[in-house]
Amino acid sequence: MANHKSALKRNRQAAVRNARNTHIRSTMRTLVKQVRSAVSAGNREEAQTAMNRAIPFIDKAATKGVIHKATASRKISRLAKLVNTLG
Q1: Where does the pLDDT of residue 22 fall: very low under 50, low under 70, confident under 90, or very high at 90 and above?
Q2: SS3 of residue 9 by DSSP
Q3: Which pTM was predicted?
Q4: Coil, helix or strand for 43?
Q5: Which of 2, 18, 39, 58 could bridge 7 with an S-S bond, Cβ 3.0-4.6 Å?
Q6: Does the structure show a pLDDT above 80 at 16?
Q7: How do residues 44-57 score in pLDDT, each as one tens digit?
Q8: Shortest CA distance to 50 belongs to which of 18, 27, 17, 23?
Q9: Which residues of 78-87 are buried (b: 16+ CB within 10 A; e: fewer)?
Q10: Are 28 and 57 in contact (CB under 8 A)?
């Protein structure tokens, strides 16, 4: 455990950031899963709606530094490609 004041503050800040990053990453994964489940069910409208919710959130995660911007771009590209397979 930290012994001086600045190290104690660092621990508190790290805990807050860890909780925030975990929440953002978990929510992003849930939104991606909703898109994939809608595609597997063959429901194009639901898949499109879910993708429209997921894309801004993935961009936000990249902006906040939770995921790399190339990872965000790759995820968005693959989701769009997946939804477009429904025709």
Answers
A1: very high
A2: helix
A3: 0.87
A4: coil
A5: 2
A6: yes
A7: 999 999 999 999 99
A8: 27
A9: ebeebbeeee
A10: yes
